[in-house]
Structure formats: C-alpha cells, structure tokens
Amino acid sequence: MNPEKAHHTVTGGLKNFSKIWGAKALLKSIYSVSDPRLEREVFGLKFKNPVGLAAGFDKNAEYIADMAKFGFGFIEIGTVTPRPQPGNDKPRMFRLVNDAALINRMGFNNQGADVAAGRLKHLKDREGVIIGGNIGKNKVTPNEEAVNDYIYCFHALYEYVDYFVVNVSSPNTPGLRDLQEKEPLMRILDTLQQLNLEKPKAKPILLKIAPDLTDSQLDDIVEIVTETKIAGVIATNTTISREGLSSAPELLNEAGGVSGKPLTERSTEVIRYLSQKSNKAFPIIGVGGIHSGQDAVDKLEAGAALVQVYTGFIYEGPGLVSAICKHLLNTGK
User: Fold this and answer.
1) pLDDT digits 0-9 by tens, 97-109
2) Per-residue pLDDT tens for 2-54?
3) What angle do CA 51, 118, 138 make, to 5 degrees?
4) Known binding site: residues?
C-alpha cells in the first residue's frame, strides 16, 4: 500500500477501534509502561516517561488521545502553519525497506493553526501526556516575512500546548532551511521569546535543527540558543544525504528528507556535539533513527534529555515505546 494511504488507513482504523468499549483500556494495558523511575522533569515540565512521538505523525492534532494509549510520554503535533495548505504533489512519501528508512517531501500539509487549536481546545482526554506544538511557515510566505507566520502560530496554539518547536529545518519547503542562518534565526527566536515573556506564563520554546549542519553552523546554534535564552533544541530533522543507502536507485533519486536508521549515528553525533560544546547548557530532545531501546540509550548517553520516535514506530510497530521504556528501566537510564 502507498505509505501515505497506509498512514491514514491505520490512524483512521485506530480512531474507530478506540470508540469500542474497553478498547482504549486494552491498548493501554498492552503498550503502556508506568513507573516513577521513568519520569523526567525537563524545561520545567514533568514527563511521565522520556519517549515522545515526533512531529509529522499527527499534523492536525487528530490522534492525541488515541496515540497516548501506546505509552508515549509526550506527543508533538504539526508542523502547523498559519493557513491551511495541501503540501507537495503526491506521491510524496516512499519506503526504503532495505534501509529501514523513509523519504518524505510532504511539504507541511496541514489544516492550519486555527483548526489544530480548535481540536486541542476540545480535547477531553490528554492521558497525562505533554503536548508540543511544532510550528512553521506557509510555502507562499517569503522568508523575509516568515517571522509573522511563526508569531501567528504561537498565538493560535499558546493556550493549548505545553511547549513550542520552531521548525526551520525541513528540506521540503523551498528556502526554509535558509532560516537556519544566524541572522534570520535570531530574529524569529528573539521575537517569539519576547512575546513569550509577555505572557502570564512563558512556554518552553525549542529549535528543531537539521542533521546536515556543519560544525561551525552547530557552533552558531549553541550561540543562538544561549543568546535568545530559548529552552532547548530538537536534534534532528530528516537529512538530504543519501550516503550509505542500499535501496533501489529510482527510490534514492526521489526528492525529500530521509528518516529512519540511516539517521541513527548522525543525529547522535549532533546531540553529542551540541551537548559538549554548550557544556550541557540546555536540554536536547534526541530524534532520528531510534528503532530500539539501545538506540534511545545511545541518544541519552550522548546528552539528550528526552527522545522521540516516528519512522522507528512505523518499522518496529506499536510495541516500540514500551520496549524502550523497559530497556531504560533495565539499564537504569
């Protein structure tokens, strides 16, 4: 089945299954691991466990209560843009089975910040999970006006999410990664942080970065996070590299970002670099190629405070979260 169609078939089926009496309790009993040793307090928020669902899976805040039953400690919605947009032309997601990876060029397809906010407002059952809001700019918005899109999303979601993620690292919106350069990034983060501090209660703001940054660019990221005093970094988004992949050439030639196992080592390297370079000055959420409990431990030992999964969840199945949590308990991490 086409990967995007499979995603909607499974999530739609899950939502219908969850309506059956006792279904949610059944899923929770099978997949959730509850233990106070798993709890983490990071950037002022208390997480029941350190394993989250990365942005991209639930773009429109449709499946939070359903996905929470698989044992996630936190769920990140989005990427959300101010106005609805269809994203790039289909097909736009491809399985690299030989590499346990995906290529996607979705292009921030979503129903808009106001729709997501409306769903969150009426969400009755958060299951104790922390909710993050991953925000981006519309494709048609020029980079010099991008800050306005991030401001709009910040205001729309502020009441309903526990933390924000500024996404300037997706390779699938033309020119978006240019916003990772120091000057435009400082402007966006400074503006959001100023608005944040004017609120009755400031929400943690994180920056999601690409794995393809050079060491000097990562040095800039450390400096930017320190100067703007945002809460932390998510490392990393998908990669544009095709190095070391063994899937069919016609698949590898598809445009888009690669996620999954090919990203495992590089994302861990970036986490370690940021952690050491900053002297652990800010929390890092580690994401990229986590397919096992040991992969999660490697990220945590490199300097991550929390981890997120997406492609690993697709390939390894819904038991991945509990497997990671059990491995963390067994290893004392």
Assistant:
1) 999 999 999 999 9
2) 999 999 999 999 999 999 999 989 999 999 999 999 999 999 999 999 999 99
3) 80
4) 55-59, 79, 104-108, 134, 167, 172, 208, 236-238, 260, 289, 310-311
Cis peptide before 86 (omega within 30 of 0): no
Q: Which residue reads 């269809």 in tokens?
A: 86
User: How many CB atoms are located within 10 Å of the residue 226 CB?
Assistant: 12
SS3 state of residue 306:
strand
- The CATH fold assigned to 32-331 is TIM Barrel (3.20.20)
Full strand arrangement of the beta sheet holding 257-260: 93-96, 101-104, 257-260
SS3 of the chain: helix, strand, coil, percent, to 5: 45, 20, 40
Active site residues: 170
Those residues whose C-beta lies under 8 Å from the C-beta of residue 232, and which sit 6 or more positions away, are 42, 43, 204, 206, 207, 225, 282, 283, 284, 285, 305
- To the nearest 10°, report the CA torsion of 117, 119, 122, 123: -110
**Model-wide pTM > 0.85:** yes
